């Protein structure tokens, strides 16, 4: 055993000692550290309760009601169809999480974390959707040992994830997840386009583009750009409706298919993969990137945008949240910049660079070129 390994073993045994823990809380120099770590550990154990408070606030539209005006608990109780004591309990829980705050005169208003949620419809949609994930995580050990025979609730929601023939998934089964992705993609589209302006490009291929939110925004911001969206047939049909409604029908086309079966459309000089690669396990991700390489000319560019593992300051987002979310979904995993770079180079993209985005927690951006 190396000296470093022996040190780590000694440290672990020391931290596990009740005697050391009592001493650390008593000793003034170590007291702040000990208290902070104790609080962090409690937050981990109580995190599910915190998420349920947030879920209840969104489900009851509490933030929307408080945006109109601060209100008393009695008034809110009538609006929320809850007993007054239950309303007050919810309000105080939300206050402790900074979602709501107390105002003068016994009123409650929006807190510093509650107000921003109203400006992000995608966040509201994801929070409301999380009840599926919570059900699947009710027994995390069972989930780790393998999904139930009929699949998880998330895998049934993301119908393409485990489908033997994804392109055959019918329209009724894509409506829910297509709408969710459209709502959650609105915020990050501009972050990507701010980081990488597309003025020099002539045609964009948006692979796995969902209902066309990113393609729509790219075309709106770049009048000289045309585009094509490729996704499952039922999803591509919904994208066509969005593009037509935005007045972009003459500058964009949509094609339906499965990249494992259908060659990607050619003729674009830039391809976008927005939150697509992390939905796929290694073999499928490798095939997808190879398909993109075949579709691009030698001077083409690939934009790969998604939340990544090991994001500084947001490590739990990748390792914990997306790690378990994608496991419950039945496909994919979060990857670090280094892992994605290795996949890109193996697919034939020798040059890969990362560009800064406004909100790396939501998405980071890799730009890959062929020369």
Residues in helix, %: 40-55%
**CATH T-level topology of the largest domain:** Rossmann fold
Number of strands: 9
CATH superfamily of the largest domain: Vaccinia Virus protein VP39
Rg of Cα set: 24 Å
Portion in beta strands: 5-15%
Strand adjacency order, main sheet = 5-4-3-6-7-9-8
| Tally of alpha and pi helices | 17
The biggest sheet amounts to: 7 strands, mixed
- Structural category is alpha/beta
Succession of helices and strands: HHHHHHEEHHHHHHEHEHEEHEHHEE
Named CATH architecture of the largest domain: 3-Layer(aba) Sandwich
Low-confidence stretches: none
**How many distinct domains?**
2
Could you name the CATH class of the largest domain? Alpha Beta
- What is the rounded distance between the termini? 46 Å
Taking all residues together, what is the mean pLDDT?
Answer: 92
Q: What spatial form do the alpha-carbon principal axes imply?
A: globular
Kindly list the characteristics that best describe this protein.
371 residues, 7-stranded mixed sheet, 17 helices, single chain, alpha/beta, two-stranded antiparallel ribbon, Rossmann fold, Arc Repressor Mutant, subunit A, globular
Describe this structure in words.
- This protein has helices at residues 3-16, 18-26, 31-59, 62-68, 73-80, 84-96, 114-118, 121-129, 131-136, 140-145, 153-157, 171-195, 213-221, 233-245, 282-295, 315-329, 337-346; strands at residues 100-103, 107-110, 203-207, 226-231, 252-256, 270-274, 301-306, 351-355, 364-369.
- It has two domains: 3-118, Orthogonal Bundle (Arc Repressor Mutant, subunit A), CATH 1.10.10; 121-369, Vaccinia Virus protein VP39 (Rossmann fold).
- It is 53% helix and 12% strand.
- Helix 15 (282-295) links the parallel strand 6 and strand 7 (301-306).
- The two termini are 46 Å apart.
- The longest helix is centred in the first third of the chain and has 29 residues, at 31-59.
- It has 17 helices and nine strands.
């Amino acid at each position: 055993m190396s000296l470093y390994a022996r040190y780590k073993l000694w440290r672990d045994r020391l931290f596990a000692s009740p005697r050391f823990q009592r001493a650390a809380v008593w000793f003034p120099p170590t007291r702040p550290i000990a208290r902070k770590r104790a609080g962090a550990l409690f937050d981990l154990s109580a995190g599910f309760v915190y998420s349920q408070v947030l879920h209840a606030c969104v489900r009851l539209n509490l933030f929307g009601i408080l945006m109109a005006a601060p209100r008393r608990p009695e008034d809110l109780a009538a609006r929320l169809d809850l007993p007054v004591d239950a309303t007050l309990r919810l309000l105080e829980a939300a206050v402790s999480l900074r979602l709501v705050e107390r105002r003068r005169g016994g009123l409650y208003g929006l807190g510093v974390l509650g107000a921003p949620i109203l400006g992000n419809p995608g966040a509201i949609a994801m929070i409301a959707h999380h009840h599926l994930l919570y059900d699947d995580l009710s027994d995390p050990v069972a989930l780790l040992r393998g999904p139930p025979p009929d699949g998880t609730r998330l895998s049934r929601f993301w119908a393409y994830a485990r489908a033997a023939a994804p392109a055959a998934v019918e329209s009724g089964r894509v409506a829910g997840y297509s709408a969710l992705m459209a709502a959650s993609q609105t915020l990050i589209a501009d972050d990507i386009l701010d980081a990488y302006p597309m003025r020099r490009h002539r045609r964009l291929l948006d692979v796995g583009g969902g209902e066309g939110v990113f393609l729509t925004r790219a075309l709106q911001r770049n009048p000289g750009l045309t585009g094509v969206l490729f996704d499952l047939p039922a999803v591509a049909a919904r994208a066509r409706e969005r593009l037509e409604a935005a007045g972009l029908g003459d500058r964009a086309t949509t094609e339906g298919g499965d990249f494992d079966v259908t060659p990607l459309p050619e003729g674009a000089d830039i391809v976008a993969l927005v939150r697509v690669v992390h939905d796929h396990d290694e073999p499928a991700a490798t095939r997808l990137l190879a398909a993109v390489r075949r579709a691009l000319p030698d001077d083409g560019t690939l934009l790969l945008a998604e939340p990544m593992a090991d994001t500084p300051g947001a490590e739990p987002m990748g390792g914990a949240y997306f790690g378990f979310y994608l496991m419950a979904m039945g496909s994919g995993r979060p990857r670090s910049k280094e892992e994605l770079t290795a996949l890109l180079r193996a697919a034939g993209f020798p040059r890969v660079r990362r560009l800064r985005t406004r909100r790396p927690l939501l998405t980071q951006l890799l730009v890959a070129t062929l020369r």
